Inverse folding.
């Protein structure tokens, strides 16, 4: 264990922020993208390969690790860092989203949520206190409060009910976390409120009063249009403390990332780079390239001959097309690596642009480059 959690804001350029947070397992430069290691692994990739893409932190999932192999077992085996052979920081989400989205049978009460495992039907209970306990057993550098995440659209009454419940759970999460703070770890609160800006403002105000180490904007990228998501971010981020990191959960495409950084976000996670890679899509500075498309069958060019990452330089589009059409595992591994590397390159570019006071130019130049590809809007 090293330094306790802290955050330093080094530079701003408009609303875009350049900073650094320090955890017991090392420092992370922001804006930062966290590859998703749901079940203690970024799918298909060695931890060393993930680190080589430039990732400084990964995300683990409380829900999945709670069901299998179990947090007590992981703790007995040395904690999640040792278990998955990842020496850098780890953030764990609370499992609330997965409970709501994956469980076939669930019952929500003030106390918490009881649900049936999607694996074998076993009943579990997840409360704010148990979510904190699980994340402590895993040894997470950054833990998240338990919240209720609704899919949009939803009625204002339903959004308000879920937001207020999440605030009460935030208070309980904060109290449960206090004994573990001696290890220098962090707990983030999660702003809810759907697409209602007044409810978002109320949530942000109440959470700020609880003095978390960082703040997340949750409940987005769950069915709403991109312009609605960005409007919520634009209005909510300035209401969060400037001296604490801001995390937009579950987002998103390269376009989402650059627009959210422009609105003051510091941290992201998303399955998109690896999931899309497994389905034959490469993210590059030219846009998204669908390697399943027949036009790549005889293309000898690499994905990007100037990329700093070997996987993007060393294999022809024709070969990657062949691997994709043949459903070969190597194609999935290579494209997942290419995509994670591109996301990290994008974050590095944004950090450097903010430092130089030219984030607006970088944003425009990057988006112009994407016009030469077929990158999706979301």
């Amino acid at each position: 264990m090293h330094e306790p959690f802290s955050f330093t804001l080094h530079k701003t350029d408009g609303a875009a922020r350049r900073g650094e947070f320090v955890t017991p397992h090392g420092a992370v430069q922001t804006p930062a993208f966290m590859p998703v290691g749901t079940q203690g692994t970024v799918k298909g990739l060695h931890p060393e390969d993930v680190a080589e893409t430039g990732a400084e932190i990964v995300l683990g999932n409380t829900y999945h690790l709670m069901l299998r192999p179990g947090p007590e077992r992981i703790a007995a085996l040395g904690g999640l860092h040792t278990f998955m052979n990842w020496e850098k920081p780890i953030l764990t989400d609370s499992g609330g989203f997965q409970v709501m989205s994956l469980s076939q049978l669930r019952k929500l009460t003030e106390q918490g949520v009881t649900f049936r495992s999607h694996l074998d039907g076993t009943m579990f209970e997840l409360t704010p206190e148990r979510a904190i306990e699980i994340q402590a057993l895993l040894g997470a550098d950054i833990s998240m409060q338990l919240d209720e995440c609704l899919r949009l659209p939803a009625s204002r009454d339903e959004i308000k009910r879920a937001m207020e419940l999440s605030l009460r759970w935030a208070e309980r999460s904060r109290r449960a976390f206090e004994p573990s703070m001696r290890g220098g770890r962090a707990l983030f609160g999660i702003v809810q409120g759907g697409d209602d800006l007044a409810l978002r403002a109320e949530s942000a105000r109440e959470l700020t009063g609880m003095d978390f180490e960082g703040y997340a904007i949750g409940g987005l990228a769950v069915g709403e249009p991109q312009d609605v998501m960005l409007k919520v971010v634009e209005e909510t981020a300035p209401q969060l403390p400037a001296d604490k990191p801001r995390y937009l959960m579950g987002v998103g495409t390269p376009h989402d990332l650059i627009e959210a950084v422009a609105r003051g976000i510091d941290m992201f996670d998303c399955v998109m780079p690896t999931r899309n890679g497994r389905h034959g899509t490469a993210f590059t500075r030219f846009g998204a390239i669908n390697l399943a498309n027949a036009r790549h069958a005889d293309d000898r060019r690499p994905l990007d001959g100037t990329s700093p990452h070997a996987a993007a330089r060393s294999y022809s589009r024709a070969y990657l097309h062949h691997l994709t059409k043949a459903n070969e595992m190597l194609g999935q591994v290579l494209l997942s690596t290419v995509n994670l590397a591109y996301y990290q390159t994008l974050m590095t570019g944004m950090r450097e642009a903010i430092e130089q006071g030219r984030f607006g130019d970088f944003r425009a130049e990057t988006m112009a480059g994407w016009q030469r590809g077929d990158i999706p809007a979301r």
